[in-house]
Amino acid sequence: QVQLVESGGGLVQAGGSLRLSCAASGRAFSSYTMGWFRQAPGKEGEFVAGISGSGDTTHYAGSVEGRFTISRDNAKNTVSLLMSSLLLEDTAVYYCARKRSSVASVPILRDFYSPWGQGTQVTVSS
After folding, report:
1. Which of 12, 15, 63, 106 is 20 to 30 A from residue 89's alpha carbon, by CA?
2. Cα(82)–Cα(90) distance, rounded to whole angstroms?
3. Are 97 and 31 in contact (CB under 8 A)?
4. What are the distances in angstroms from CA 26 to CA 53, 89, 92?
5. Closest by alpha carbon to 4, among 110, 103, 116?
């Protein structure tokens, strides 16, 4: 059974940077697209970024493009999200998730992903 564990969240000032990591257990990590999602208080969860199994394809939400970078290390079964130029509105719980199927696409809808990690809080202060 695949388990995902996020780390790296915390409190950061606006304009600062933070790197989130997600460690995956189980086999065939490199066969699956991984995604980062976030949910702010009182808001719907939203797609942030995704990366294909090989790492060749990435996709970002418009609100983070140019500020966030997703990457993966298939030898270590990890996926990372480097967040720069953080804004107050980036405050949320961030979740990593594995795509349900091994088809090499990067969907943005939550239903395409399972399992999910427990989440890590990111708080951006002014």
Report:
1. 106
2. 13
3. no
4. 14, 34, 27
5. 116
Strands across the sheet with 78-83, in order?
4-7, 18-24, 78-83, 68-73
Give the pLDDT means over successive 10-residue stretches in the chain (126 positions). 95 98 94 97 96 96 98 98 98 97 90 96 97
| pLDDT recorded at residue 26 | 87
Q: Amino acid letter at 83?
A: M
Q: How many CA atoms lie within 13 A of 83 on its CB side?
A: 33
What does each C-alpha distance from 69 to 6, 44, 64, 111, 116 come to in angstroms?
A: 16, 22, 9, 23, 20
